[in-house]
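Protein of interest.
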Amino acid sequence: MALELLTPTSFLPPPQESSTVRQLSIDLFLETLNYVEDQEKRKMQEEVCRSLVLLYLHLHDEEESVAKASQKALLGAARFLRWRRLEHLVQTAQFWQIGECMVCTFPHPTTGSGPPCANPALFPLQLDKRRRKSAAQEYLGQSLLYLQSPQESLRREAVRFIGLLGQHMRDQEQAETEYIYQRLQEAQQDPSPFVSSLALQTLKILKETRPRPPQGDFGQLFSRLRSAWRRWRSSRAHR
């Protein structure tokens, strides 16, 4: 397999593709992982990491076959990366926790748990701030594409994930934080009242916590975002 020409992420489709194309592309991604030989796995880790956001968002695809294919492929990606926490969350369908896991942690290449690996050569998206910043920026760039998805469910989940990234990236450059605020402000104009209201709540929470908090408040913000999300789902269920 020519890795520089054919990589797993090259199979993953834009969100506006038909459900058949989405499902077949995701299935092909997973099939590709099965053919990666041991000497190629280290080269492919970064490529597989680039697929995580797309697979995660398509867990919420309105087409059930695509959502199931995404869950199966994300599970395969987690096992390929030996990311035990992510594997457990996908296997047990704890979809809310997956976004938090992706934003907050990276897998240990040997055990799949514990602190990040001390050798960046073993897992290229991990250690130093520059690489972590780059990973967060890539997550953001991919999730922003889904704000234009024709599916309300994908736009909604993209807003939520961008909110998590906003919290994670707030100690980086101010311009990046402001960029996230702008995208969430634009999402408030979404034709779906559910997406627009979630964007409004997320932006409000991020701005309220703009000053860098003491250690430990990161989890409190996740709790507030989760509460806002549950209130939104409850209000929708009673409509």
Observations:
- The CA atoms of residues 169 and 176 lie 8 Å apart.
- The chain has a mean pLDDT of 77.
